[in-house]
Amino acid sequence: MRYRIAVEVMLKPAILDPAGQATEGILQQMGFSAEDVRIGKRITVETEADSAAAAEIAGRQMAEKLLANPVMEDFSVSVVAL
Amino acid sequence: MTVGVLVFPGSNCDWDTVHALEDLKTECRTIWYTETDLRGLDRVILPGGFAYGDYLRSGALAAHAPVMAALERRVAETALPVLGICNGFQILCERGLLPGALRNNASGQFRCSLETVRVTAAHPLFPGLAAGTLLRLPIAHHEGSYTVPPGGLGALFEQQQVFLQYADADGVVQAYANPNGSVANIAGVSRGSVVGLMPHPERAMESYLGSADGRRLLSSWLEGGMRHGA
């Protein structure tokens, strides 16, 4: 089966996000109510796996070994069948 | 003695580093990132630059290049002295050869300036650089803010792994002397025979270019020794 894994990577809450802060300032200047703006990344990967659960395990391993840095980032993984 | 200078796609301080080593009358050669045979090398430098375009995170992709597995083996088996400069420091952290990580500067800006750093803990690979030694070295980075997991800072100091800290002109480590928001003003760390620092010693080889303290740091590293297993 073919699946698309999506890994969402965010800076840990304790890590300063200067890009998020700058964006927050502009959103506020534009008149929006905007607080605690954080910028992360979404990485999608197409993969062959026996099941959605297996694809999710592969996605977690990709995140742990490369896609996220556990010192400063958290991640979440989701999977859809293609 | 032969020093290997690793070259990744996107390294851009490799030839500056070679020039500095040649100026110090040291034999060196560049090592392409796909090489896996590091025999014949007595020391290795990971130079500055933007390996793999800094894609994903600075150093993250280069950390898994073929040459890095070979380097990791040499460090484990023979305590090979390794020096990571700027992007090289980021790569060593991403590989797990050094503790911690480098994140975006707190200012949100790329910082290019001459800074004072203080040697926090003397290291056998840097004879003559006693704790408290002050050096003037240039920095040039956007992701140079050093960080460790919560609760990890005490152990870093206790284990003498903090090598350099940003300081004011009098050598006092304080907040306004911190150019990038690094935790505890940390500019460089070590673990065993592996050392990494954000400043560029290869750009401080002549006093008429601002500072010759990089010459002092590199000369010391070239003289320093490490007992295997030390």
* Helical fraction of chain A: 25-40%
Order of helices and strands of chain B: EHEEHEHEEEEHEEEH
H-E string of chain A: EHEHE
Strand count, sense and closure of the main sheet of chain B? 9 strands, mixed
Q: What is the count of distinct domains of chain B?
A: 1
Count of individual helical segments of chain B: 5
CATH class of chain A: Alpha Beta
Could you name the CATH homologous superfamily of chain A? Phosphoribosylformylglycinamidine synthase subunit PurS
The CATH superfamily label of chain B reads: Class I glutamine amidotransferase (GATase) domain
State the helical fraction of chain B: 10-25%
Taken from the alpha-carbon principal axes, the silhouette of chain B is globular
* N-to-C span of chain B: 20 Å
Describe this structure in words.
The complex is a heterodimer of chains A (82) and B (230). Chain A has 82 residues and is of the alpha+beta class. Chain A has a single domain (2-81), classed as Phosphoribosylformylglycinamidine synthase subunit PurS (Mth169, Chain: A), CATH 3.30.1280.10. In chain A, 34% of the residues lie in helices and 33% in strands. The longest helix of chain A has 16 residues, at 52-67. The mean pLDDT of chain A is 97. Chain B has helices at 14-23, 66-78, 87-95, 153-158, 213-223; strands at residues 2-7, 27-32, 43-46, 82-85, 101-103, 111-119, 134-141, 145-147, 162-167, 186-191, 194-197. Chain B is globular and about 45 Å long.
